[in-house]
Amino acid sequence: MQTTLDRTDLRILATLQANGRITNAELATEVNLSPSACLRRVQRLEADGVIASYGARLEPRALGLGLQAFVRVQLRQHESEAIDTFTERVSAWEEVVACYALTGDMDYLLQVYVADLDDFSRFLLDRLLNAAGVADVNTSFVLRTVKASAALPLGNVAG
């Protein structure tokens, strides 16, 4: 069920997307509310599931994860058991930071971070290609990130 958001809610969300570490007092000032009213709104947004979580964005290269790849995967079979087995395995692989089920000629898109090409080769050969039911894999390596934002576009959200 979609939560009804007003302009103040959208301003709160935009501010939190830009700075998740902002204090409630600073947030209240930013959106022109009292601290108690602001806190109630944030708590409602959390309870309604609009705010899913809080976290830090890490710099992959600073952690030695210098290679990012997008891997398109096609399964041999599309029965629920094969899909469940594949998604369980993908969910357990630390290298995979995102997995999307797709329409079109490939079934899944994996976003993968590893240290280097040798690590990717091990991931591909030892894990992905050994996963039961994988028929085809196509990989694209990221040369340069042009835009990467976790922020959702709030400009067209009804409010």
The backbone outline, from C-alpha atoms, is elongated
Radius of gyration: 20 Å
Name the structural class: alpha+beta
**Number of DSSP helical runs:** 5
Strand order of the largest sheet: 2-3-1-4
Order of helices and strands: HHHEHEEHE
- Roughly how much helix do the residues carry, as a percent range? 25-40%
CATH superfamily of the largest domain: Lrp/AsnC effector binding domain/regulation of amino acid metabolism (RAM) domain
Number of strands: 4
Number of domains: 2
Strand content: 15-25%
Task: Summarize the helices and strands and which ones pair or pack.
Layout: H1 7-18, H2 24-31, H3 35-47, E1 67-75, H4 80-92, E2 96-101, E3 108-114, H5 117-128, E4 134-141
Antiparallel strand pairs: 1-3, 1-4, 2-3
In words, what does this structure look like?
This protein is α+β, with helices and mostly antiparallel strands and 159 residues long. The protein folds into two domains: 7-47, Winged helix-like DNA-binding domain superfamily/Winged helix DNA-binding domain (Arc Repressor Mutant, subunit A), CATH 1.10.10.10; 61-141, 2-Layer Sandwich (Alpha-Beta Plaits), CATH 3.30.70. 36% of the residues lie in helices and 19% in strands. It contains five helices and four strands, in the order H-H-H-E-H-E-E-H-E. A four-stranded antiparallel beta sheet has the order 2-3-1-4. A hairpin with a 6-residue loop joins strand 2 and strand 3 (108-114). The protein is elongated, with a radius of gyration of 20 Å.
